[in-house]
Specification:
Two copies of one chain form a homodimer.
Chain A: E1 2-8, H1 37-49, E2 54-59, H2 63-72, E3 80-85, H3 91-105, E4 110-116, E5 119-120, H4 124-139, E6 143-148, E7 159-166, E8 169-176, H5 181-190, E9 193-202, H6 204-214, H7 216-227, E10 235-237, H8 240-244, H9 251-256, E11 262-267, E12 272-273, H10 277-283, E13 295-298, E14 304-306, E15 311-315, E16 320-324, E17 328-333, H11 340-350
Parallel strand pairs in A: 1-2, 1-4, 2-3, 3-10, 6-11, 13-15, 14-16
Antiparallel strand pairs in A: 4-9, 5-12, 6-9, 7-8, 7-9, 8-11, 16-17
Helix pairs in contact in A: 3-6, 3-7, 6-7
């Protein structure tokens, strides 16, 4: 079955402040290897699309940035459909709108593969193998999640508990929230739990059928929004008023945790949700993630410095992440990077 | 006896990098109360000079900055003599040159009071009282050091062990280096030890006589330098070649630890050697030493942030000092601020 990748890149990424800002969000940040997340995600999508169309759902403010990034990646051979959100409303509206549009424009005989643009996957071959399994399940009417075999008792991710084998994957027993360390260790030891990656595979028809049953209001709203939207070319900006009325909820809560035809494939590849500075620093080879030329360490260890031309000196400190941008400076303990979003909250409160 | 203050402000203050830099050294840094060290020192000098002349020994590169600072302080009523060093060579050459110049130009019937420009003294009345005691001793031919009654077992200062009472002070038993904590606690408990403040009081004649006996080469070199120097007005730049030949050594080592007529007065006033960021942060009232407006703290405590307009956010950290300047950023553990000078060393090595 033909695969149509759906790139999701509308989020602001507040945990990666100050580099990820509203005007310059996470997908456009360069990773330690120099490539941006959107470039990496596009490459992943192109490998699946096999020359066919690629859908990108993003905020309308990021259309130009995204378009330019794709041009730079010389991705001209694919047809690109941009579905532009007037505002960020979490993943359920974005994915439901994409499914509704695809069903009308491309038909139901395709597999949509949802690719958040803040994931890193180095092992393309095993990702492709997991996708082959997922499309087999999707073709059988399943709503398929990508689980990742856990390499450590990570407490920053949600988990999926697998049930009985089903075709090339497993039925899903349950979705579980981010666990504490002890619980996570039990999950890893049991062998029945997979990281919930936030990637999905399904046909538009299966998704819309499930939405019709368990998220009736959301689907009706999405259909109304699509009807009110001008869809005559491949750059489509959703009707502002009706899109703004869709419930801002994750697709996990709205659909996957409640549908009965949900299954999971066990991905056997390195996967990194670039959700925090800790995750980015893990990708960096050396202590000084930025220019070593611009960093001086005295009696300091296990630090990650991301600087932008200015000299940064560290004396007698350890386990720190330092992100220095022209507008703002972040100094964060390595184990507290999830709290960076609280800085953005505090700044919002002040204004 | 007439007091002639001698302000010493030629040092670079590498432990206060990055604010104190070669081009903008420590005396010109604003303290948390907004006033610069040189302004504070000038005020202290004027209170002693009683309208008379004030000598300032500084690097020739800092002449304009110093002159401007004095103009701003409306210190026009004093005669200002600037003795300008072509290069920094520690305190013995600076003080010996000042004594030699004063002996010739002002005569020996004055008390020179040596005031380093990186000290803070809030209690002017008790400082004045100590100076009255010091001048009594100086008039009797003594080389007088200002000791400070220790308020805590500080390990960052040297100590002076007092011997028998002598006039309004004490003879000096010995000078001791920076002690470890246990030793410092013993010093404080004994009551015989005073902090060595680095302030001195003597007549030019007494100093030169001692130098002639125990630092013969230094004095001969200083006299040769003064002879080679154009001294016709009050801004005097020492002859470069002969000044450069003077031994770069502290006046403590060269004179005070070796002369036999050294005494100490017991100063009973708050005294702070602004030698490190720890010392400066101690002066700040709140956690955020800079603009609180520009600082965001999340799950952080006991931090001192000195920022210059840019937003600084701290997440999950404690006991840090952050100094953010347009050129460079310092992040330092509060207990390691003495090592900041190692950053400057490393930077020198790179260039």
């Amino acid at each position: 079955m033909k695969i149509v990748p759906v790139i999701l890149s509308g989020g602001a990424g507040t945990r990666l402040w100050p580099e990820s800002r509203k005007s310059f969000p996470k997908p456009f940040m360069a990773m330690p290897d120099g490539e941006t997340l959107i470039e990496k995600t596009l490459a992943r999508a192109r490998a699946l699309a096999d020359g066919g169309p690629i859908i990108t759902v993003t905020n309308q403010h990021y259309h130009q940035l995204t378009h330019d990034a794709y041009e730079n990646a010389e991705a001209h051979s694919n047809r690109h459909i941009f579905l532009l959100e007037p505002e960020a409303r979490n993943t359920a509206p974005a994915i439901t709108m994409a499914a509704a549009w695809a069903s009308e424009a491309l038909g139901d005989d395709v597999c949509l593969v949802i690719l958040p643009s803040d994931h890193l996957i180095a092992d393309v071959a095993n990702f492709r193998a997991a996708t082959d399994k997922a499309t087999e399940l999707a073709a059988a009417g399943q709503l398929v999640t990508y689980g990742i075999k856990p390499s450590r008792p990570e407490t920053g991710y949600g988990y999926i508990k697998a049930a009985a084998p089903l075709l090339s994957g497993f039925a899903v027993d349950s979705f579980v929230e981010k666990p504490d360390l002890k619980t996570a260790e039990g999950y890893v030891a049991s062998g029945n739990y997979l990281w919930n990656s936030g990637m999905f595979c399904f046909t538009p028809g299966s998704f819309l059928k499930a939405a019709d049953e368990i998220a009736t209001e959301l689907l009706a709203g999405a259909r109304a929004c699509l009807a009110a939207t001008e869809c005559s070319d491949d750059t489509i900006t959703f009707d502002r008023d009706s899109f703004g009325e869709l419930q801002a909820i994750s697709v996990d809560y709205a659909i996957f945790e409640r549908a009965t035809n949900v299954s999971v494939v066990a991905g056997d590849f390195d996967w990194n949700d670039v959700g925090s500075w800790q995750a980015i620093s893990d990708l960096a080879a050396s202590d000084a993630g930025g220019s070593v030329q611009d960093t001086v360490l005295v009696d300091s260890e296990n630090v990650y410095v991301r600087n932008s031309g200015r000299l940064v000196a560290l004396v007698g400190v350890s386990n720190l992440i330092v992100v220095d941008t022209p507008e703002a400076l972040l100094i964060c303990d390595r184990s507290k990077t999830q709290q960076v979003k609280d800085v953005v909250e505090k700044l919002k409160e002040r204004q």
